[in-house]
Write a structure and sequence with these properties.
The structure holds 2 protein chains of 2 kinds.
Chain A: H1 3-15, H2 21-33, H3 35-52, H4 64-78, H5 88-94, H6 103-108, H7 115-132, E1 139-140, H8 144-150, E2 171-179, E3 182-191, E4 194-202, E5 211-215, E6 218-225, E7 228-234, H9 238-248
Helix pairs in contact in A: 1-2, 1-3
Chain B: H1 3-13, H2 17-28, H3 31-48, H4 57-76, H5 99-105, H6 108-117, H7 120-131, H8 136-143, H9 147-169
Helix pairs in contact in B: 2-3, 2-4, 2-7, 3-4, 4-8, 5-9, 6-9, 7-9, 8-9
The chains are: A alpha+beta, B mainly alpha.
Chain lengths: ~250, ~170
């Protein structure tokens, strides 16, 4: 099979961020020297950004959430969960009151959780809270010159604030949050319909490394940059979340 | 379900209601049906939550939403789906010209109309990938098909979308 055939077959997977590094580089090398393929990729990108601009998304009608909640509560009283025998232990674990909030994690990780695991769970919880309580931002602005000064006097450090609208991750605003026993800055970005929380706090000594994990379906990544600890969390796919992390370190 | 489990259910699944409604609305093409599907899907989710293995809750919920939509169709016996041939590649008409320009002219409304007119098998892969941002693996879980089939279906759906858009912007099929 020629390089062209191979690359054109992989083009969409490349666009979707589904290729490993080696294959991505192969496709990129081919793109740089093949006009038909780079044209095809351009068209795919144009279609994708038209689809992702948010105007095609149907928002749930007001009140649906409450109606569903009411019905769920009614039903859950009368019904016993239908659990395959093998999974019954999970329900049992969830009834231990003290461990309730951690039941999922405790059964998934038999060993004691590491510091990073604990923080990543806190980060994922903070993300879910910000979405559920419709309290995503304290200061809603795409202007970094508005968001950065807003943190003054609220934190004992000044987070670097970037707007990455040009890279496809527009800044939505900022918020104060509380992670690992301290007040932290939460910067909120958007990608299509996905909200991304980026938590920042100072970490002068490099204690933990970089890494990534998946917590209850959310991708969570961490890195260190200019003496700060960064955690990003979103339901966005991992390649795009890593892309955002890369942009923030530039 | 006791109150702890109920709380876990709500914490895990309620944040994904927006995605559930969006998928249901695209699949049923009706506001009222979409609401009914979302409601029914959550009630099914309550019953089956004990079997949820702690994977991606969004993909898990969307699987139920999709199944609920499909059974709603079967009950009503409308919107019957035509089986699609997975093997025949979409024919790209190279003579159609610079799509970049056409795409820039396309409004959200036109794109919506073209996507809405696609057969449901194509519509759902586009919605799951481009609107919900699911990975191939997650899509394969939701649609319950191998990843390879998902990939080829997505490629064909995108080709149809581009072609439909062109035809629409040129004033109908030639």
């Amino acid at each position: 099979m020629s390089g062209h055939e191979k690359a054109s077959r992989l083009l969409e997977a490349y666009l979707d961020g589904e290729l490993d590094l080696v294959r991505s580089l192969e496709v990129e090398r081919h793109l740089s020297e093949c006009e038909p393929c780079s044209g095809a990729l351009r068209r795919q990108r144009a279609l994708r950004s038209a689809l992702m601009d948010g105007s095609l998304y149907y928002d749930a009608p007001k009140g649906l959430s409450e109606r569903v909640r009411t019905e769920v509560r009614k039903t859950s009283k009368g019904s016993r969960p239908v659990a395959p025998a093998g999974w019954r232990w999970r329900a049992v674990a969830a009834t231990v009151p003290v461990a309730a909030a951690l039941a999922w994690a405790l059964v998934a990780i038999p060993k004691g959780p590491s510091q990073d695991e604990l923080v990543s769970r806190e980060v994922a919880s903070a993300h879910v809270r910000s979405l559920m309580a419709e309290h995503l931002t304290d200061v809603a602005s795409s202007d970094r010159h508005t968001v950065k000064p807003w943190f003054n006097g609220k934190l004992d450090f000044s987070p670097e604030v970037k707007d990455l609208a040009g890279e496809g991750y527009p800044l939505v605003g900022g918020r104060l949050d509380y992670i690992g026993g301290r007040a932290v800055a939460a910067l909120v970005f958007r990608r299509g319909n996905h909200s991304i929380n980026v938590f920042v706090w100072p970490e002068p000594d490099a204690r933990g490394g970089d890494g990534e994990s998946s917590i209850q379906g959310y991708n969570v990544i961490r890195w260190r940059h200019s003496g700060m600890r960064y955690w990003a969390v979103s339901d966005l796919n991992l390649p795009e979340l890593l892309e955002l992390a890369g942009d923030l370190q530039r | 379900m006791d109150s702890t489990e109920l709380e876990r259910f709500e914490r895990t699944l309620l944040p994904h209601m927006r995605a559930a409604y969006n998928l249901a609305r695209w699949l049923t093409r009706s506001d009222q049906d979409a609401e009914d599907v979302v409601q029914e899907a959550y009630l099914r989710a309550v019953r089956f939550f004990g079997g949820f293995r702690g994977g991606d809750p969004k993909a898990w919920l969307l699987t139920i939403v999709r199944n609920t939509s499909h059974s709603a169709w079967r009950r009503r016996d409308s919107g019957a789906t035509v089986p699609i041939d997975e093997d025949t590649p979409e024919v790209e008409d190279a003579s159609l010209g610079p799509e970049d320009l056409l795409l820039q002219k396309a409004s959200g409304q036109e794109l919506r109309a073209v996507l809405d007119a696609l057969p449901v098998e194509f519509r759902e892969v586009v919605v799951l990938r481009e609107l919900e941002g699911l990975s191939y693996k997650e899509m394969a879980d939701v649609i319950q098909l191998p990843i390879g089939t998902v990939m080829s279906r997505l490629a064909r759906a995108r080709a149809r979308l581009r072609r439909g858009l062109e035809e629409r912007l040129r004033g109908g099929p030639e």
